[in-house]
C-alpha cells in the first residue's frame, strides 16, 4: 500500500517551503501540555530584556507643597532564545507506512485522507516536541552539545543558578528548603506550610504549583487520610491546596521527573520565548543518500522567569 504513495524529493521540498511556518510551529504546539500553563513570547531572537516595574510613590492628603521621589525599581531579567538546528534522516516509504496505519484504508473515500508529503514532514516536526518539552525544566545550555537538553537552560537550571548567586534565598522571601522528605503522611501539612509561607501579595494571585507527579500523588493520599470523614471531600484528585481559596493549583508535570524543586508562580511569570516571526528559521529537505532524505530545520527557543521577586515567585527545594 505504501508503494502507491511515494513522493519525490521535489514534492517534499515544495511542502517544506510552502508550509514552513506551520512546520516550525509544530514542535511548540506539541509542548502544549506544559506551555498551556506558561506565557508565550513570540518574536524573540537571541536576547530581550524583560522585567517587573514597581515604585514607592503614593497618594496622601492634598498638600500643594508636598513632593516625593518615585524611586522606580525595575527588576530586569534577560529572556534569551538560542538558535538550534536538527538534521533528521528519514526513509520516506517507512514514514508513509506509519501514516497509513494512522489514517486507515486509502481506497475509495479513504483516499481523501491519504497522507501527503506535508503529512510526512509534520510527523517528523511533531516528533521533535517531545525532547523540547523535556528540556523546558531540565535543559542545561552546552554550546558543544548535540541534543535538545543542551540547547538552553530550563527553569530548574535557572533556579539552581539563582540559588547559587543568592538571588533566590530564604532572606529574600522567594525560597525555602524542606527539611523532611514528602510522604503520604505529611504531604498535606507540608503543602499548607508552603502556602502559609508565601508573601501575601503572591498568595492573593491565581497561582500554579509546578511539581512532580509523585508530589501530587502524595498530596492526594495525604488528603484522603486526613479528610476522609469530611463531607466536602468528594473526589480523590485534589486540584488545589487546602486553605488557598482555590487559588493555588496543583500542576503535576511528567517532564519534572527527577526535579528537586517546586515552583509557585502565576502563569504570566513563566516566559517561553521563540521567534516564528523572522526569516532566519528554516525548514529544508535534501537528499542524504539514495532512498534516504534529510529533514533540516532551525529555530530559536528559550525560557525565563519574568521576575524572581517574592511577590511573583516562590521556589521550594525538596529535602536531600
In short:
By secondary structure, the chain is an alpha/beta fold.
Question: What tags apply to this protein structure?
Answer:
globular, alpha/beta, 5-stranded mixed β-sheet, 320 residues, phage-related protein like fold
Descriptive overview:
- There is one protein chain.
- The chain has one domain: phage-related protein like fold, CATH 3.90.1690.
- 31% of the residues lie in helices and 24% in strands.
- It has helices at 9-18, 20-29, 32-35, 92-103, 117-127, 129-138, 155-165, 187-197, 200-203, 213-227, and strands at 39-41, 47-54, 73-80, 82-90, 175-177, 207-211, 248-252, 261-265, 270-274, 282-289, 292-305, 314-317.
- The strands form three sheets. Strands 1, 4, 9, 10 and 11 form a five-stranded mixed sheet that branches. A five-stranded mixed sheet has the order 5-12-8-6-7, with helices on both faces. A two-stranded antiparallel sheet has the order 2-3.
- Helix 10 (213-227) links the parallel strand 6 and strand 7 (248-252).
- Helix 2 (20-29) packs parallel to helix 5 and helix 2 crosses helix 6 (129-138).
- The longest helix is centred in the last third of the chain and has 15 residues, at 213-227.
Q: Would you tell me which CATH topology applies?
A: phage-related protein like fold
Instruction: State Rg.
Output: 24 Å
User: What class would the helix/strand composition place it in?
Assistant: alpha/beta
Unreliable spans are 103-112
Q: Helix fraction?
A: 25-40%
**Mean pLDDT score:** 82
Chain-wise SSE layout:
Elements lengths: L8 H10 L1 H10 L2 H4 L3 E3 L5 E8 L18 E8 L1 E9 L1 H12 L13 H11 L1 H10 L16 H11 L9 E3 L9 H11 L2 H4 L3 E5 L1 H15 L20 E5 L8 E5 L4 E5 L7 E8 L2 E14 L8 E4 L3
Parallel strand pairs: 1-9, 5-12, 6-7
Antiparallel strand pairs: 2-3, 4-11, 6-8, 8-12, 9-11, 10-11
Amino acid at each position: 500500500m505504501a508503494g502507491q504513495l511515494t513522493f519525490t524529493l521535489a514534492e517534499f521540498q515544495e511542502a517544506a517551503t510552502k508550509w514552513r511556518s506551520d512546520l516550525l510551529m509544530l514542535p511548540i504546539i506539541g509542548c502544549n501540555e506544559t506551555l498551556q500553563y506558561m506565557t508565550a513570547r513570540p518574536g524573540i531572537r537571541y536576547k530581550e530584556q524583560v522585567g517587573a516595574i514597581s515604585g514607592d510613590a503614593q497618594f496622601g492628603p492634598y498638600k500643594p507643597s508636598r513632593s516625593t521621589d518615585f524611586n522606580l525599581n525595575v527588576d530586569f531579567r534577560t529572556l534569551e532564545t538560542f538558535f538550534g538546528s536538527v538534521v533528521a534522516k528519514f526513509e520516506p516509504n517507512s514514514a508513509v507506512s506509519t501514516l497509513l496505519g494512522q489514517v486507515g484504508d486509502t481506497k475509495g473515500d479513504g483516499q481523501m485522507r491519504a497522507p501527503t508529503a506535508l503529512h510526512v514532514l509534520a510527523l517528523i516536526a511533531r516528533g521533535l516536541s517531545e525532547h523540547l518539552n523535556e528540556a523546558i525544566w531540565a535543559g542545561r545550555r552546552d554550546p558543544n552539545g548535540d541534543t535538545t537538553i543542551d540547547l538552553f537552560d530550563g527553569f530548574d537550571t535557572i533556579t539552581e543558578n539563582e540559588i547559587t548567586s543568592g538571588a533566590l534565598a530564604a532572606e529574600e522571601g522567594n525560597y525555602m528548603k524542606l527539611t523532611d522528605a514528602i510522604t503520604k503522611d505529611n504531604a498535606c501539612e507540608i503543602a499548607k506550610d508552603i502556602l502559609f509561607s508565601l508573601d501575601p501579595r503572591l498568595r492573593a494571585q491565581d497561582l500554579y504549583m509546578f511539581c512532580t507527579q509523585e508530589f501530587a500523588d502524595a498530596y492526594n493520599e495525604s488528603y484522603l487520610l486526613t479528610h476522609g470523614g469530611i463531607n466536602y471531600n468528594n473526589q480523590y484528585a485534589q486540584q488545589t491546596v487546602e486553605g488557598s481559596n482555590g487559588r493555588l493549583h496543583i500542576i503535576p508535570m511528567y517532564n519534572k521527573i527527577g526535579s528537586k524543586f517546586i515552583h509557585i508562580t502565576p502563569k504570566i511569570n513563566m516566559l517561553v520565548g521563540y521567534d516564528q516571526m523572522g526569516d532566519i528559521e528554516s525548514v529544508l529537505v535534501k537528499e542524504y543518500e539514495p532512498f534516504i532524505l534529510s529533514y533540516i530545520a532551525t529555530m530559536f527557543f528559550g525560557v525565563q522567569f519574568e521576575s524572581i521577586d517574592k511577590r511573583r515567585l516562590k521556589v521550594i527545594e525538596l529535602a536531600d
